[in-house]
Amino acid sequence: MTQEAHVTQGPLTTEAGAPVADNQNSETAGLGGPVLVQDQLLLEKLAHFNRERIPERVVHARGAGAYGTFTVTRDVTQWTRAKFLSEVGKQTETFLRFSTVAGNLGAADAVRDPRGWALKFYTEEGNYDLVGNNTPVFFIKDAIKFPDFIHTQKRDPYTGSTEADNVWDFWSLSPESTHQVTWLFGDRGIPASYRHMNGYGSHTYQWNNEAGEVFWVKYHFKTDQGIRNLTQAEADRLAGEDPDSHQRDLRQAIERGDFPTWTVQVQIMPAADAAAYRFNPFDLTKVWPHEDYPPIEIGRLELNRNPENIFAEVEQAIFSPAHFVPGIGPSPDKMLQGRLFAYGDAHRYRVGINADHLPVNRPHATVARTNSRDGLLYDGRHGGAKNYEPNSFGGPHQTDRPLWQPVPVAGATGNHAAPVHAEDNDFVQAGALYRLMSEDEKARLVENLAGFIAKVSRDDIVERAIGNFRQADGDFGKRLDAAVQALRG
Ligand code: NDP
Ligand code: HEM
């Protein structure tokens, strides 16, 4: 039933559909007497209200989403057999949820934080989710560190506030964060809106073609609206004046037909290059410099339809890096491997075991044929069909063809750090980023970092934090040191 039908047809009813006589006065024993337990409408309304919230996402709680269309603009069949990418001009429906990372559900949009970029392609071979960010790298490179990292971004267990001490203690003791932190405190750390920023798949993924050849890919979504950012002062003001600024901007742009678009590019590395590449190609704290693997334009993404119901379509939307389609798969990136588990687990806790059946989450261009049944809020969609495989009753059967190609491995099991390649260290790309910034941006970067580091209570943490930026670039470290000392007196 559409929203309109709910609003316009017939009398107000209870959840069971019985007409409601009085929605203003609860039922009492006589005039001015106590309320009766037989007033089922009152009890039903209060009980339902108490259960209106589901757990918010443990990260990326605050967000906004929109439907759209992905169009292929270049033949990529030499690299992947994914059907939705099989022909120039082919279009696929999408749903994109943008978010901030650290804030709770009601937090302001205009804050310094990475922005989530969770993109669902409703393909004819199943839903493909690309769960990325607006930055090409990340703070850490092993999933085992993620809960500790996020604890430092959230509220301290004793003070109940976010604490500069915790943030800088962790970052300074995790020097691999230096690249992402440099990016975050630069101009792109506070986008002016969701429309004015790029999206990145961030991780390296596998593409494989009909012949079974393997390629490693990185995705880039370049905003056609142009990059626009807010200064710290502009953001501080906007966060107070209009906490929903990014969400409102996206909805209103789509309402007026000003559909935001992104040019989609990939960097492609033949599998044979990976072992000898100068950087570990599966290290999430590193980019592949464009001069090594030039971005190739392959498509266009347009957002053109707002969700009708935020709770149903945005709050209950689920995205998983483990949702692949034939021709696309994971890389051995240790962060990605952890994420392959984390999201499905979060969905089962947050939305429930049948979350995939909701309209925003289920496949739109094919149907899911599984033998999973029942569970909370199961809608009986499978009718009387057999629920096991193999069976002799025409049930669905396996294809014998894996979605992705096997990856060779060597050596013994162990708690190994990711392999270090010829030019890898935690600072080289942070330095390159600093040096590509304009003089004005460098000054803002130093000011933004210094303002935050100066809040740290312990000298050893301050010194260690500045030391990491000094290793990235001598000038960067010198200027930051001077700015922090000036603030700390
Ligand atoms: P590249 O040409 O490979 O990368 C330069 C890219 O940096 C640009 O294309 C742009 O990415 C991005 N960029 C430009 N200005 C800024 C800024 N102020 N803040 C953040 N990103 C910016 O050059 P290098 O190999 O020398 O890389 C230098 C640094 O560029 C890297 O260390 C990395 O931090 C950053 N970078 C690299 C990307 C890559 O894929 N190689 C992607 C994004 C950032 P875009 O075109 O995506 O807008
Ligand atoms: C959301 C875990 C790293 C992007 C989430 C959620 C969890 C999670 C549990 C909430 C999911 C939900 O409730 O639906 C992790 C873990 C990580 C990690 C364990 C590291 C190992 C990353 C990285 C990126 C990323 C590196 C981007 C490159 C996102 C996005 C969302 C999200 C965009 C929001 C999805 C949505 O809109 O529903 N993450 N995350 N995460 N994460 Fe991660």
What does the model show?
It catalyses: 2 H2O2 = O2 + 2 H2O. Belongs to the catalase family. InterPro entries: Catalase, Catalase_3, Catalase_AS, Catalase_clade1/3, Catalase_core, Catalase_haem_BS, Catalase_immune_responsive, Catalase_sf. One of its GO terms (cellular component) is cytoplasm. Its EC number is 1.11.1.6. With about 500 residues, this protein is of the alpha+beta class. It has a domain of about 250 residues: Catalase core domain (Catalase HpII,  Chain A, domain 1, Beta Barrel), CATH 2.40.180. Helix content is about 30%, strand content about 15%. It contains 13 helices and 10 strands. Strands 1, 2, 3, 4, 5, 6, 7, 8, 9 and 10 form a 10-stranded antiparallel β-sheet that branches. Strand 6 and strand 7 form a beta hairpin. Helix 3 packs antiparallel against helix 4 and helix 4 crosses helix 12. The radius of gyration is 25 Å and the shape is globular. The relative contact order is 0.14. The model has no long low-confidence stretch (mean pLDDT about 95). Bound molecules: NADPH dihydro-nicotinamide-adenine-dinucleotide phosphate (NDP) and protoporphyrin IX containing FE.
